[in-house]
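INFO worker-7 received task bundle
INFO bundle size: 2
INFO processing item 0
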Amino acid sequence: MEEAQMVEVQRRGDNMMYSYGLLYLPVSTYSLLCATQLAFNAVFSFFLNSQKFTPLILNSIILLTISATLLAVNADSENTSTVSKGKYAIGFLCTVGASATYSLYLSLVQLSFEKVIKRETFSAVLDMQIYPSFVATCGCVVGLFASGEWKSLSKEMKEYQEGKISYLMTLIWTAVTWQVSSIGMLGLIFEVSSLFSNVISTLSLPIIPILAVIFFHDKMEGVKVMAMLLAIWGFLSYIYQHYLDDSKSKVKKKPNSNEVSLALTDQV
């Protein structure tokens, strides 16, 4: 699984670029730049995965990008007076680069499933998750001890406002849900396409404010409602295109089955 390990190394670098972008940019600017990953993914899918674009798919990509952009513009901007122009530029370039790299990662995963792995089993999806995650874990452990940050873990746990148990539970369930999310993403790439997986990820952005209203009693503003409706519209547009493609494939299979049955009757 050398290919999977190389892809995971690429993803680790992608996460590092995202971290630098979030460190040096306002939340609104950062979110706005992250919304470009769907457009990048469309380009990479066209060249690497032979993705066919129809008016419905293009409509879906545009609507979901606008939806994410609305959330970014509506977000409260952080004070950037303490950030120098050089660091701001680094954050900008890192975020754009991370969005492009993540989109490339999704397309390469689909290409690996199609050209390298060539196994249509659930174990293939698990292999693409387990081996890269093991490499990433080893890298994180080495970095933790090499940097000396392991010495401050106990202090960080004690200073956590919700208590030690909440600290541990947060780490454990974050790890579990992240693995479930990653397997779901790989499953969507395996069953459908990298572009569809990214569409689902982008669809989740407008859903988050709804969960914030339910669990954290956040305010539901008009912009968030508009972003949610646009995201649902874009998602349904993509789903309808898949419905049309599936209907066409069934129509094409029927004549072939009829020809086989006729051939059998002629032999009899």
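INFO item 0 finished
INFO processing item 1
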Amino acid sequence: MKQQFAMNIVWLLASMILYNGFTIIGVSTNVSTIPEIVNIGAIFSFKSVIGKAEKVAIEAAIEDINSNPDILRGTKLRLQMKDSNYSGFMAIVEALLFMERDTVAVIGPQSSVTDHVISHIANVLGVPLLSFSSTDPTVSNSVPNDLYQMVAIAEIIDHHEWREVIAIYEDDNHGRNGIAALGDKLAERRCRISYKARLSPDPTRDEITDVLVKVALRESRILVVHVPGSWGLTVFSVARYLGMLGTGYVWIATNWLSTILDTNSPLSQDAMDDIQGVVTLRMYTQDSELEEICV
């Protein structure tokens, strides 16, 4: 699903170049002065779950566009990809370097926290910043934000007449904003988050264990897990070790888990055992003319 969004973003950029015409940092794309080459930057972690899918999808979309001279009337897209290597600082630095060059748009970053910082700079310089993986409800992106899946989770909880849930999440802007959105949608249905279990970014297994022990002492057994895919499976590994995946518990994971299943399959048998019975959400992309062209 992330691959489809990545391909859609590149086609969106191509449409902007073709139909709108815009000037960014001295680069004019008006029909009267159509350039031979248009530079596009991309920033993501090459070895991450999402990054692996992104690299393939973006390269495929660029190849599709450049192989057909009728799409951009002779203009070709030149892609420059930079590996942020899981570092928000490196993503910011690479974004600034892109923006001071003849780059008409930047794809990325993956992190909603980094997206917050870079978006302000991009707005001042007039450089489009498009992200297909940042889903923070408070940031404008090209993918459905977390508000949509929080509505879906609230509907599931309300349907089963569960009134209290526990939220397990990463303690950063993305995690806090996502859980805040969930809290609002639950309140509309007279439900609530009874306990918020915060985990620091990139927590140790011991920290996850400590947090889940506290969760196990709570009354509610309905658990919503909103964490990054880079360490999300460890949460379920620890939960299984603590005996928290058995009868009486309900685990709901946001779309980070479906992304792992889509991009890293097949998982090890231990990992599959850890997530047995877990409900997860997957983004849905409607069929469109653009999708038919990409396929």
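INFO item 1 finished
INFO post-check item 1: The mean pLDDT is 82.
INFO post-check item 1: The first strand starts at residue 23 and ends at 24.
INFO worker-7 idle
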